[in-house]
Design a protein that fits this description.
This protein is an all-alpha fold. It has one domain: Tetracycline Repressor, domain 2 (Orthogonal Bundle), CATH 1.10.357.10. It contains 9 helices and no strands. This is Transcriptional regulator, TetR/AcrR family. Keywords: DNA-binding, Transcription, Transcription regulation. It holds the Pfam family TetR_N.
Length: 184
């Protein structure tokens, strides 16, 4: 195998794809190295362990959503309806073009009961998502109802991502976004 130069980000991107498709436990350092065109030992120049790659992968996706999707909820230049529509559009762009579902949702089920570090990062992601939606809903609904709606939407979208991947059908997933838009 030819050795090539790579970056931490490229390794994370390949690891994310593998974790989503194979699962965390079914993916080895050798699988990640192979996907990156590296020998296994080369990965250790960038990461100490598979757990470190796992945590960094979770943080990578979390930061992507914070910067590109959740931040929309706090944009003072947009009306609430524009915010919701844009959040749904950007979320759709991500999940409709991403095989294997939601990395954080997948790993919440696979490893969070055994790995407290993973669990904390995953909880931060879902809390940030709920808070972004709450920030919009609170302008139309009372606080407790806004919290409930935010959590329900996150649960609905995660369930619909699972069903979309299971049945190879995006129609239910797309209906969840439509429902969210109709709330504002």
């Amino acid at each position: 195998m030819a050795i090539k130069k790579t970056s931490k980000e490229e390794i994370l991107q390949e690891a994310i794809k593998l974790f989503k498709l194979k699962g965390y436990y079914n993916c080895s350092m050798a699988n990640i190295a192979d996907a990156c065109g590296l020998i296994k030992g080369s990965i250790y120049h960038y990461f100490k362990s598979k757990d470190e790659i796992g945590i960094e992968s979770l943080k990578y996706i979390h930061n992507y959503f914070v910067d590109n999707i959740f931040s929309i909820a706090y944009d003072k230049n947009l009306k609430d309806e524009e915010k919701i529509k844009l959040i749904v559009k950007k979320t759709d762009e991500y999940f409709l073009n991403s095989k294997g579902g939601c990395l954080l949702g997948n790993l919440a089920l696979e490893v969070s009961s055994e790995n407290i570090d993973f669990k904390e990062v995953i909880k931060e992601y879902f809390t940030a998502w709920e808070n972004a939606l709450f920030n919009i809903f609170k302008n139309k609904y009372e606080e407790s109802k806004s919290r409930i709606l935010a959590r329900e939407y996150v649960a609905l979208i995660q369930g619909s991502i699972m069903m979309m991947n299971l049945y190879d059908d995006s129609s239910n997933y797309l209906q969840v976004g439509e429902k969210l838009i109709s709330l504002i």
